[in-house]
Amino acid sequence: MTPAQLPLDLPHRAAVGREDFLVAEANKAAVALVDRWPDWPTPAAMLIGPPGAGKSHLGAVWKTASGAVALAVSDLDEARVPALCAAKAVLLEDVEGLLPEGETALFHLMNLIKEEGGHLLMTSKVGPAELDIHLPDLSSRLRAVVTAELGTPDDELLRAVLEKLFQDRQLLAPEPALRYLATHMDRSIEAARKLVAAIDQAALADKRRITVPLVAEVLRRDAPSS
User: Fold this and answer.
1) Taking the model in full, what pTM does it have?
2) How confident is the model at residue 26, as a pLDDT?
């Protein structure tokens, strides 16, 4: 029996430009909001969606277009606000994780970015009304921002995302394998990334082509045990 080849966990270049973001019904409002910048109705905007829906990808697209400074909400503090606003564009991710001690910093950031004529793009798993905000003035500011939602990917979007992820790794996945994955996998782009990486590893280790039997094996192997 031929021993399996040991796959090396080599980095690959993920395509994250605007032209690489696949537009579908579930995300077209969010794409339109990013494309509309800097002609936003408010200085601040928020992308809302479940994990793996594409918020970070769109945030990265906007960061490139705007020259924004990017940081996670956990890294935000009042001392950083003036320097952030000087950049005129700020990408603040995972706002649902804002702690009470960070609320004043975000309030000042939103006020100063408006005064400076800049823009703030936030990402969040939930909308402004669902955020656990204790500072009334901040809650009011957040509820006033323009928002766009990214929904759960449908079969067609998942199939297209899978194809792109395989192409990022310079792999050819036949249509039946793509369709099988799209209809049997967890409905998230993050799940698609993990699956494609696992299939790449399995194909290399066993020296096999990407086929329906192979992807089915990976799906069964990686499925959470009940």
Assistant:
1) 0.75
2) 78
